[in-house]
Amino acid sequence: MPSVTLREIGPDIEDAVRALRVAPGQEGFVASVEQSFVDAVDEPEGNAWMRAVLADGIPAGFVMVAWDVVPVPGEMWGPYYLWRLLVDARYQGRGIGAAAVALVAEAVRADGADTLLTSCVPGEGSPQPFYEGLGFVPTGELDPDGEVILALDLATGPTR
């Protein structure tokens, strides 16, 4: 597995991060990096924490977390919510996504959180099995778009 790190998105790697794309057929399950940038501006209350996922120093993915937000039932999940996780099609299947989630968990744990939330579209091809394999469990809630809300107990996982 490559060495995976998270890094702020500066001008030197922004174009490479914006160019990341999921595999064909996955577009219905994760928004693009470009859309994530738009969402971060359109929803400033989400306090977007965005990072490039580097594999051996090369941009291979993207994460965006709603960071320490005030939850609003049915509208804003939190206080820590994995808003986006994208691994470029060229880098999938190498453990990069799992390593990125572990790094995000480590960062929010260090900020004092005990739970990390995320959501996903249910159905064939959904990333739900990926998240459950990392220790996320369905909360029984759905967001307004019908996405399943999942929670990760940061006392138990995942870690690097």
TrEMBL record:
Name one matching Pfam family.
Acetyltransf_1
Give the PROSITE patterns listed for this entry.
Answer: GNAT (PS51186)
Highest taxon of the source? Bacteria
Q: Which residues form the signal peptide?
A: none
Q: Where is the N-acetyltransferase domain?
A: 4-155
- The protein here is known as GNAT family N-acetyltransferase
